[in-house]
Description:
Layout: E1 2-8, E2 17-23, E3 30-39, H1 42-48, E4 65-72, E5 84-87, E6 90-92, H2 98-101, E7 113-114, E8 133-137, E9 142-143, H3 150-153, H4 159-169, E10 177-181, H5 185-196, E11 200-205, H6 211-217, E12 221-224, H7 229-233, E13 238-243, H8 251-255, E14 258-266, H9 278-282, E15 287-290, H10 296-308, E16 315-318, H11 323-331, E17 338-342
Parallel strand pairs: 10-11, 10-13, 11-12, 13-14, 14-15, 16-17
Antiparallel strand pairs: 1-2, 3-4, 3-8, 3-17, 4-5, 5-9, 6-7
Helix pairs in contact: 4-5, 4-10
Amino acid sequence: MTLAKAYAAPAAGEALRPIDIERRSVGAHDVLIDVKFAGICHSDIHTVRGEWGEQSYPLVPGHEIAGIVAEVGNAVTKYKVGDRVGVGCMVNSCGTCDYCEAGDEQYCRNGMLGTYGAVDRDGSITQGGYSTHVVVTEDFVLSIPEGLDLDVAAPLLCAGITTFSPLQRWGAGPGKKVAIVGLGGLGHMAVKIAAAMGAEVTVLSQSLSKQADGLRLGAQHYYATKDPETFEKLASSFDLIINTVSAPLNISSYLDLLRVDGAMVNVGAPAEPLPVNAMALIGGRRSFAGSMIGGIAETQQMLDFCAQHHLGADIEVISADQINEAYDRVLASDVRYRFVIDTATLN
Ligand SMILES: [Zn+2]
Ligand SMILES: [Zn+2]
């Protein structure tokens, strides 16, 4: 057993504060990770505040974890002490269902095990990455390639894979016109990755306030969605639209921006149902789809791709005592583009 320093929400809606937690003893297939950096994802805020269902408290959030291997179990073959590693949104799955066998562990029929707030095999509740240490079975540990600093790599474990997976699946690449809706934590990675894949990238944002950033990140075009002319001008022009916005949008007006056979993929998760006008789909053989993170092999592929193209997240590194303030700033969209906790400040 390892004692770890962490930051936890003591109850729904209460500010996070320091806590000591126990990490399980390193089992035969386990890796003990000395966490160096942990990204702050919007999901962390929804979850600890109880907005996505009841939680068990105290709860340590964090599923964008980057660190160094400190100890390995005697059956571990993939990692050794000193390796640079990451952990994303899940820490286990059944491993035997058809989805797991296909590498889609995130959709495991028996339920993937979330990195925090989930009931583990031994009945304990998983605790996330706002912590000095974490123990994870080796199959759910990712390798962070040399050439990617750990701080800018951490957000790739959620924001990176969430956008990489649909961009790859729906064929973003040379000759393809891709629109990214929303330029936040997810959107800024979507722009970088889609541009690196060779697509022609357009940002669709409420206003033009982040236009300079969007172009710097790799977009070729930038339009304000509050301007109705945008929707007339861009009608039937995109092969793929990735929607990173978690607030309800008029989906049918975005579907009209797709070419024949185009697809709009939601990675943002609004609480409310999104009404879709079937005519907007029928009148262009269009698809409206969703996507949730990615499998483990695909997450490794994403990290390798990002290292090869020198793509880290744009981050603001904070100390642990700034977490609550950072939450307020995330909710106010006042971050460019991801907060990352330096876990050395937990000690
Ligand atoms: Zn996340
Ligand atoms: Zn499974």
